[in-house]
Amino acid sequence: MNNLLYIIAVILVILWVIGFFAYSAGALIHILLVIALIAVLIRIIRGSS
Fold first, then answer.
1. Please, which of 14, 29, 45, 48 could form a disulfide with 19 given CB 3.0 to 4.6 Å?
2. 4 with 43: CB under 8 angstroms?
């Protein structure tokens, strides 16, 4: 489950970068970034177990 969370976070960050440079989607791009950061923080807090 932790690996899935990490993969989702990475995908969201990649989508944010693509959207930031390629499209003007407004708040949606920043929401994706916030979700990705929250996922990474949850992974860090829970550790690798």
1. 29
2. no
Domain extent listing, the chain: 2-46
Rounded CA gap, 8 and 48, in Å?
16
How many Å apart are CA 26 and CA 31, to the nearest integer?
9
Distances (CA, A) of 37 to 17, 25, 27: 13, 19, 15
pLDDT in tens, 1-49: 567 878 888 888 888 777 776 666 566 767 777 888 888 888 888 875 5
Whether the predicted model's global pTM rises above the 0.85 cut: no
What is the residue type of 49?
S
